[in-house]
Design brief:
CATH class of the largest domain: Alpha Beta
CATH architecture of the largest domain: 3-Layer(aba) Sandwich
Protein name: Protein-glutamate methylesterase/protein-glutamine glutaminase
Mean pLDDT: 91
Number of strands: 14
Strand content: 15-25%
Number of helices: 12
InterPro entries: CheB-like (IPR008248), CheB_C (IPR035909), CheY-like_superfamily (IPR011006), Sig_transdc_resp-reg_Me-estase (IPR000673), Sig_transdc_resp-reg_receiver (IPR001789)
Family: Belongs to the CheB family.
CATH superfamily of the largest domain: Methylesterase CheB, C-terminal domain
Number of domains: 2
Strand order of the largest sheet: 8-9-7-6-12-13-14
Radius of gyration: 20 Å
Low-confidence stretches: none
CATH topology of the largest domain: Rossmann fold
GO molecular function, one term: phosphorelay response regulator activity
Main location: cytoplasm
Helix content: 25-40%
Distance between the termini: 55 Å
Structural class: alpha/beta
Length: 345
């Protein structure tokens, strides 16, 4: 049975472009269009779509307000289609926090790569576990250093994709300011990662930044891979971030496999790997490399994943030593990387 999609965008040209991309996939049927939320509301009632693509900025009601109504009155998987502006990125991130399944960037300067992933994301959204959330503004969860935690020197590497915005906030917002050093590869359009890093930095106690080439990897810091480059660790003795714009790996740049593989080589047993919600298989082989190198490896469990894709593949190939629900991941990571716990053993 095909996935029924309603396309909502105020631009007729963009509605046709989105529809044309989706119609390339024989498993997807575009059942209707709407130019604004008022038209969309009627179309949703009449057509009962499986997935909605939604523009962030529209007349009569903005995409965030309409998303809130969808999630409250008729929960349906939503893919946000965003402009590559700072305002568009900020609104899209809020939408992902508040119930949207995933996002794609509208084509810019002839770059269609992210946009061409829309059919795959629509299929994943149709199978996702919808978890409606409130659109109330997120309050910063800033917490200071804690004497109960002291980093044991291990590096934490995290990979995520679809559903990763919410998952990363859930994990990092529970970290103290003196947390272990954390490196993250999250599948996200290149223009969104800086805004996401800034958002995380406001919400979390550690210093969160978009990684730059040559940055030292230090406790109390979280490094998010830019959306346009692979993130690796270089200089094992004094680890630093290394960025490079190589070929896509596992279909992605940044790739979780690239990050995990570099951590396996540079840190081995002095690391901990975590694979979160996401579609596809990126990160599974890299996490297996980490486990074989002596690292502890953790996967988000099926029940708490928006899309149980990446963690499932990693578990099936033996890369995941332990699966945990999202709500327990932060405490487990801190417990396993706490020097005080090791001293008591």
């Amino acid at each position: 049975m095909s996935v029924r999609v309603l396309v909502v965008d105020d631009s007729a040209t963009m509605r046709e472009l989105i529809s044309a991309v989706l119609r390339r996939d024989p498993e997807i049927e575009v059942v209707g269009h709407a130019a604004d939320p008022l038209e969309a509301r009627t179309a949703i009632k009449q057509l009962n779509p499986d997935v909605i693509t939604l523009d962030v900025e529209m007349p009569n009601m903005n995409g965030l307000d309409f998303l809130e109504k969808i999630m409250r009155l008729r929960p349906t998987p939503v893919i946000m289609v965003s402009t590559l502006t700072q305002a568009g990125a900020a609104a899209t991130l809020r939408a992902l926090e508040c119930g949207a399944i995933d996002c794609v960037a509208k084509p810019s300067n002839g770059d269609y790569h992210d946009f061409d992933q829309l059919p795959e994301k629509v299929r994943a959204a149709a199978k996702s576990r919808l978890q409606p959330r409130s659109l109330a503004p997120s309050e910063p969860v800033k917490r200071g250093c804690t004497e109960r935690f002291a980093s044991d020197g291990r590096i934490v590497a995290i990979g995520s994709s679809t559903g990763g915005v919410e998952a990363l906030i859930a994990v990092l917002s529970r970290f103290p300011a003196n947390c272990p050093p954390v490196l993250i590869a999250q599948h996200m359009p290149a223009t969104f990662t800086r805004s996401f890093a800034e958002r995380l930095n406001r919400l979390c106690a550690p210093e969160v930044t978009e990684a730059e080439d040559g940055m030292p990897v230090l406790p109390g810091h979280v490094y998010l891979a830019p959306g346009s480059a692979h993130l690796e660790i270089a200089h094992p003795g004094k680890p630093r971030c290394r960025l490079h714009e190589g070929e896509r790996v596992s279909g992605h740049r940044p790739s979780v496999d690239v990050l995990f593989g570099s951590v396996a080589r540079a840190a081995g047993a002095r690391s901990l790997g975590v694979i979160l919600t996401g579609m596809g298989r990126d990160g599974a082989q890299g996490l297996l490399d980490m486990r074989r190198a002596g690292a502890e490896t953790i996967g988000q469990d099926e029940a708490s994943c928006i899309v149980y894709g990446m963690p499932k593949v990693a578990f099936e190939i033996g890369a995941v030593a332990r699966q945990l629900p999202l709500g327990k991941l932060a405490d487990h990571i801190l417990r396993r990387t706490n020097l005080h716990n090791r001293e008591r053993v």
